[in-house]
Amino acid sequence: MILTSSSFASAEDYGGSSWRRSPSVSIALERVGGGSYSKLASSDHDDQSASLSAFGIGSVNVNPYTAPRLGVDYITPVGVTVGGGLGFGRFALSSKSGNRSTDDGSLFIYTLTPRVGYRIPLGPRFDLTPRAGVTLAGGSADAGDHSNESLGVFAVALSGEVAGAIRLTPSFNLLVGAGFDHTVHANSSREWKTTSSGGSTTTKRSEDIKGSLWTAQGWIGIGGYL
């Protein structure tokens, strides 16, 4: 068998105009794996900071910024994209001793990221889409039957990322991306219940979190074009 330039051309054009058709909607499962680095620094004490490094595929993730999310984006005829990403997760721990079951606590996290971008077709099978947006992230945790207290946090971050789509078929993509989230506002809340002879009382207190928090991530995912 002799391969010629025309043979390669026909292979590249497999599927006809489907490869060259400009998609109008992108649906993706983003950040299902990869590596990330997060750093939290206190504004009250210059020498106090904490960092978190994580790496995995489909693993449990307690950082809302790096948690898997569903992304839906509309692609205009000129290449501008408008859409967002939504992610959430809940983790619960329980134990059992004989016939007695104990709630040992739970954690709930969520993210919502409205965003805009621009799709750049670099070839018939590869697209690059830089995009920017605002991420609303939060979570809550409680100790179950061991405490009447629960904690919560809410944060707003400026987010930017570059997502690359490797088109395995005209409508199915393997995704690779790099993202950065920088928190501009964060608030923590604490709620607890006290019980007395007069009944139970719920008290809630909240305060702003002072300092800086940012997360950098390289991620992989899957998606499709409509």
UniProtKB/TrEMBL annotation:
SUPFAM superfamilies: Autotransporter. It comes from the Bacteria. Residues 194-203 have a biased composition (Low complexity). Residues 1-21, 187-207 are annotated as: Disordered. This is Outer membrane protein beta-barrel domain-containing protein.
